[in-house]
Amino acid sequence: MARSTSSSHGGASDTSRRQRGGKHGASKSSASWLKEHFDDRFVQQSWQDGYRSRASYKLLALDEKDRLFKPGMSVIDLGAAPGGWSQVAADRVGSEGLVIASDILEMDALAGVEFIQGDFTEESVLEAILTILDGRPVDLVMSDMAPNMSGMSAIDQPQAMYLVELALDLARQTLRPGGSFLAKVFQGEGFDAYLKELRSSFTRVVTRKPEASRARSREVYLLAEGFRG
């Protein structure tokens, strides 16, 4: 698979996003962003429930609606740090399941999760994932990856689409027939073409916008089920 090192990604948390110079830092003072962040009910709920990020509630809502997980499943979580999605996945698949998480950022160890730190645009990360799988078919590939946001859509959107295209490429290589793919995608140039590409490989594709996804954000989650293999 041809790869470029021109893009990077971070994890699912708002803290990670702020570290990557996201739109909050570009459009607001740090103080006002922090106030919004800590006043956020999903942030507060994550502290009470022991989740590592508010992003956990996006995945919990998606699982409640679409029944993403079953015990014993094999799951790949891309853009995983600080581990909010991996926590949910590991709990749902149980001790017989497998969760492989990857991010360019560090992530503290999680029980039941194999973590690979590295830039997903580099071939070595794919090779490490395949090594851990050791031929085991994957039931679900999840991507919450995002590029380092500059605040300029002409730069950010192509980079974001490049990352989800790489995630789809990995899904096509690793998913079992009938498997599922879940990806955060930013609406804009390339979105419709990506949707069409998903529909060519999966029997069902739906768009989701969980409550924990901020209304002003262009992010949506595309769930593709029934991989044709």
UniProtKB/TrEMBL annotation:
Polar residues composition bias: residue spans: 1-14
One annotated GO biological process: methylation
Pfam families according to UniProt: FtsJ
Entry GO MF terms: methyltransferase activity
Ribosomal RNA methyltransferase FtsJ domain residues: 51-227
Class of the enzyme per the UniProt entry, highest EC level: transferase
Active-site residues, record numbering mapped to chain: K184 (proton acceptor)
UniProt: S-adenosyl-L-methionine binding residues: G83, W85, D103, D119, D144
Compartments in which it is found: Cytoplasm
Region (Disordered): 1-32
EC number: 2.1.1.166
Leader sequence residues: none
Keywords: Cytoplasm, Methyltransferase, rRNA processing, S-adenosyl-L-methionine, Transferase
Top-level taxon of origin: Bacteria
The reaction(s) this protein catalyses: uridine(2552) in 23S rRNA + S-adenosyl-L-methionine = 2'-O-methyluridine(2552) in 23S rRNA + S-adenosyl-L-homocysteine + H(+)
Protein purpose: Specifically methylates the uridine in position 2552 of 23S rRNA at the 2'-O position of the ribose in the fully assembled 50S ribosomal subunit.
PANTHER family in the record: RIBOSOMAL RNA METHYLTRANSFERASE, RRNA METHYLTRANSFERASE 2, MITOCHONDRIAL
Family under the similarity heading: Belongs to the class I-like SAM-binding methyltransferase superfamily. RNA methyltransferase RlmE family.
Name this polypeptide is given: Ribosomal RNA large subunit methyltransferase E
Organism taxonomic ancestry: Bacteria, Pseudomonadati, Pseudomonadota, Gammaproteobacteria, Oceanospirillales
